[in-house]
Amino acid sequence: MATGAYAVGIEPARQPRVTRYRLVPNNWPAGLKLRLVVLADIHACTPWMSPRRIGEICEQANGLGGDMILLLGDFLSGMRLSAGHVAPEDWARELARLSAPLGVHAVLGNHDWLDDPGAMAAGKGPTLVHGALSSINVAVYDNRAVCLEKDGRSFWLAGLADQIGPWPGMDDLPATMAQISGEAPVILMAHEPDVFPTVPDRVSLTLSGHTHGGQIRVFGYSPIVPSRFRNRYAYGHIVEDNRNLIVSGGLGTSIMPFRLGSPPEIVVVDLG
After folding, report:
1. Closest CA to 214 of 203, 205, 226, 228
2. Closest of 125, 116, 110 to residue 194, by C-alpha
3. DSSP reduced 3-state for 247
């Protein structure tokens, strides 16, 4: 009973821990130092992720000194138990607090489609989340890439549309990569980590959420992971064939309102 009470009432509501990674991917240009602050899986609903709490998390994120802030999808609740609804304009108003020199950038997650009745009925977007993020001038990356610059050095930021939403195949990695030219490094946002085996080594770092670290994580193992690869991409920094993936444990909860051994987190990545 005590464990259950902790998993429902304490761990999900904790102030997010800050998990830091420092890496220099292969072929990363000398002299380019970049700090990314990553927020994933907000799943806005009361009482677990109220507008007030979202605002507090945004202020915490702003204080981490990021060059840019990346939002990795699943803004809508996805909760199957009764919980208070948070309107998109209410959580967007709190996200508008986010600020970084190179801006705030986002991709959508599966719940941003599946929990949007209008988009589901229409069979297409834009979704409620597209509209909410547009209203606060946050760029949404649906299979697109843009070239950015810091200290006179260029890099690419790319983002995939959701991979497992209502219509499989919305994501298009080849079309996204085709927009990229030159030798500047590439950072890829992909809500689900399952795309990672097909990500080319041209990409310096892939950033994902979706798994919540399994929401239950004991001794580094999660019994249930929403990925066809199970624990292979459940959480943390994964290196395969000299390619880098970082999977955030996220902030909110989905389906069931509990976390155990996988507390809410903000990820900070220092590159270079």
Report:
1. 226
2. 110
3. strand
Residues 63-121 have pLDDT tens digits of 999 999 999 999 998 776 656 889 999 999 999 999 999 999 999 999 999 999 999 99
Most distant pair of Cα atoms in the chain: their distance:
57
Copy the structure tokens of residue 43: 């799943």
Q: pLDDT tens digit string along 201-258? A: 999 999 999 999 888 888 788 888 888 999 999 999 999 999 999 999 999 988 777 7
- Count the alpha carbons within 13 Å of 119 in the hemisphere toward its beta carbon: 19
* Beta pairing class for 104-106 and 68-71: parallel
Residue closest to 253 by CA, chosen among 13, 3, 5, 1 = 13
Calculate the alpha carbon distances from 147 to 75, 118, 220, 244 in Å: 25, 33, 36, 20
Element (H, E) at 9: helix 2-9
Residues in CB range of 113: below 8 A, 6 or more apart: 119, 120, 125, 127, 162, 165, 166
DSSP3 helix / strand / coil % (the chain, rounded to 5): 25, 25, 50
Residue with tokens 């009482």, as numbered in its chain: 47
Residues paired with 158 in a beta bridge: 145, 188
Find how far residue 206's CA is from the centre of its chain: 11
d(CA 54, CA 47): 11
